[in-house]
Amino acid sequence: MSVPSHARSPLSSPAVWVVAGVLASAALGFEFAIRALGYQLQKSPVEAEDGIVVSDISPRTASWERARDGKGNEIPDRRENSEVEETLGTNNYVSRTYVQRQPKAGSRPIVLDLHVAYYTGAIDAVPHVPDRCFVGGGMQIGSVEGNLPLAFDRSAWQVDTSVPEGLGPLFKVWVQGEAPFGQTYVRLCKDADKIQMRTMKFLADGGVSVYVGYFFVANGGYTFFVDGVRELAYQLTSTYAYYMKVQVTSSSCKNVDEFVAASSSLVGELFGDIMRVTPDWVRVMQGEWPPQSVKK
């Protein structure tokens, strides 16, 4: 007795097997092409050398130092609880308040909050930025000031002539920090002399103006766009992926120009330290770091 057509299994149809075969062949072909081109869809974590972490960034520069409380005690770095750190997506970060060491005559010293956070490996989360987080915390956006250039003092920067063709040009700067930094030259990210900071003004309770600016360093490059992080950190030919957010906040600046000038001073004087807490991307691309990495 023949089986009614409506009762037959879909798997009995030759067309189904033809389609399945085509899809399987396509999948194998795609995998072969990915391997042949040297593409890496899965990214591995990579950290700075010598066990250096973000909180090792110096609390003191020529123009800035860690802020003190009313009793003259240094204000410790802020650490979040485990739930907040889980939301943040990393525990390799620093949140520190700096104060201007030599303010202008007749002026109160400017106070800046520096937040630097490092992410690496399978980075799936969207970076946390003030555009979302500050608004979620109850602040209102007063104005979007734009992507404003940071005017670093580059008098101590040098062109790194040891960088292979295709990976530069890059600058390097001498870091004279204490352990674990030591005294060494540190390579800066690509386009370090062109860094812009995404800058906004928020209105807190009582109408207080809070200025905030941020940018990202990712896989040896830099961007001020959230979407730019994925473009830099997830290049198909890269085995490793990392990004770092650098954010400055202040409620003590009179206007955006003063905020950008102060941010340029603080971040510029700390930039060697900031880049030292990331892996040297030239060494990563040359297979010299991390240990047992595959040379590209």
Note down, in words, how this protein is organized.
This protein has helices spanning 14-37, 82-88, 130-136, 226-233, 256-276, 281-285; strands spanning 64-66, 93-100, 111-120, 140-149, 158-159, 171-176, 183-187, 196-203, 209-218, 221-223, 242-250. The longest helix is centred in the N-terminal third of the chain and has 24 residues, at 14-37. It folds into two domains: 14-39; 49-285, no CATH class. Strands 1, 2, 3, 4, 8, 9, 10 and 11 form an eight-stranded antiparallel sheet that branches. A three-stranded antiparallel sheet has the order 5-6-7, with helices on one face. It is α+β, with helices and mostly antiparallel strands and 296 residues long.
Count the beta strands.
11
Succession of helices and strands: HEHEEHEEEEEEEHEHH
Whole-angstrom Rg = 24 Å
Shape: globular
- Helical proportion, percent range: 10-25%
Q: What percentage of amino acids are in beta strands?
A: 25-35%
**How many distinct domains?**
2
Q: Report the total helices.
A: 6
- Cα-to-Cα separation, first versus last residue: 65 Å
Tell me the structural class. Answer: alpha+beta
Q: What are the segments in which pLDDT stays under 50 over at least 5 consecutive residues? A: 26-39
Largest sheet: 8 strands, antiparallel
Features:
2 domains, 24% helix, 296 residues, single chain, 6 helices, eight-stranded antiparallel β-sheet, alpha+beta, globular, three-stranded antiparallel β-sheet
Task: Describe, in short, the structure shown.
With 296 residues, the protein is an alpha+beta fold. Helices cover 24% and strands 25% of the residues.
